[in-house]
Amino acid sequence: MATISSAGSDSALGRLQTNQQNNGQLQHTTSSHNGNQLSSSTSSLASPEAESAGITYRTENKQPRVTVRETKSLDYVARTMLAGGIAGTAAKTAIAPLDRVKILFQASNPQFEKYAGTWTGVFKAARDIQRSGGVRGLFQGNLATVFRIFPYAAIKFMAYEQYRSLLMPTRRDETPYKKLLAGSLAGVTSVFFTYPLDLIRVRLAYETKATPYTALVNKIYNEPAGRHRSAHMRWLPALKVSNFYRGFLCTVAGMIPYAGVSFFTHDVAQEFCREYLPWTLKPTQNRGLPDKNGDYARPELRTIAELACGGLAGAISQTASYPLEVVRRKMQVAGALDPKEFIGMWETAKRLYIAKGVRGFFVGLSIGYLKVTPMVAISFTVYERMKKVLEIN
Q: What class, spelled out in words, does domain 74-282+300-389 have in CATH?
């Protein structure tokens, strides 16, 4: 079976026509994820194997109208940010009630701590919240979540595409370590720009009474901890704005395994489906022309398969990063417990271990699975669909 190569000086159309004359068959190959897209008027041509699998590939019968979307262009960056922002917003809103209950458990809220550690605790806590604040209470802090998650997800997915393009410009350059590194760098980049919004969201969710957004922001800004730091933290600027960065270093430490493992697992799961589970692919695939590297667009997965890949990525990444997430939540709500004290990551972890042992680092993990698994599944699935809509696949 003839293989389409990127070598030589002929045009992509010429290479396709040559292969048609030689064999009339196209070998199924996957592509690098470099964001270049070529579109044109098409006619169907399929190999016997593709026809038997219900997959139709398309080649050109006229001079194509080629649209090249470079990964470094502002157009590509804007489109990936929009796709990522929409994906993150949809996913977070879907699991907002679980997110609030998990924060209450992680931060050891006295009113809800009695429910922590049991499988039914999340439902009992949600029941109490609904009784006292109605359905709106279950979504308390979600507006702040949306304000945070849109730029966070937009930057994360955009940064991942950029790091991936830089580290792995073609499929031949892809390695597990590069995928892990690209995901980790994307997570750290996004959290750097959006961390204050995350802290405000957590504090809103921690409050058992409805608190105006602007009032809480003003309260955090004026907490004295930002001006009075312990000896081992005096190298940091004594600024009020630092109150919005409680737990930031812990967040960065946790984001490396979380984002890295998440993107890595999702990519590996997708490739496994495309390689070994052909029934997970959509029945009709429009491949168009190869890009400048001679690679084709990846075959699109069915929605159920995409959700499964995202859910698996969410569960594994949650397990890898959860202890650091618990420590981060403790640091973020510390201002509500003692506005004058600014406790570092290691001291917070030490106090948590003394109080609850190793088990304390996994409080609310069952809720984490219930929350993160569908959240990541929805996020990746919506992102993949938005890429198709915005023509950046």
A: mainly alpha
In this prediction the pTM is 0.66
- Cβ atoms 352, 327 nearer than 8 A: yes
SS3 call for 284: coil
Residue whose structure tokens are 């084709």: 296
Which pair of tokens denotes residue 226? 């930002």
Query: For residue 143, what are its two tokens?
Result: 């507006």
Closest to 166 measured CA to CA, from 185, 148, 151, 153: 185
Separation of alpha carbons 379 and 388, rounded Å: 14
Range with the poorest average pLDDT among 69-78, 136-145, 197-206, 223-232? 223-232
The one-letter code for the residue type at 364 is: G
Cα of 352 vs its chain's centroid, Å: 28
Dihedral pair phi/psi, residue 281, rounded to 5°: -85, 150
255 pLDDT exceeds 70?
yes
Question: End-to-end CA distance of the chain, in Å?
Answer: 27
How far apart, in whole angstroms, are the C-alpha atoms of residue 224 and residue 230?
12
Helices (H), the chain: 12-22, 48-52, 74-94, 96-106, 121-138, 142-167, 176-206, 213-221, 248-276, 303-332, 334-337, 345-356, 365-389
User: What DSSP state is assigned to residue 235?
Assistant: T
List the domain boundaries for the chain: 74-282+300-389
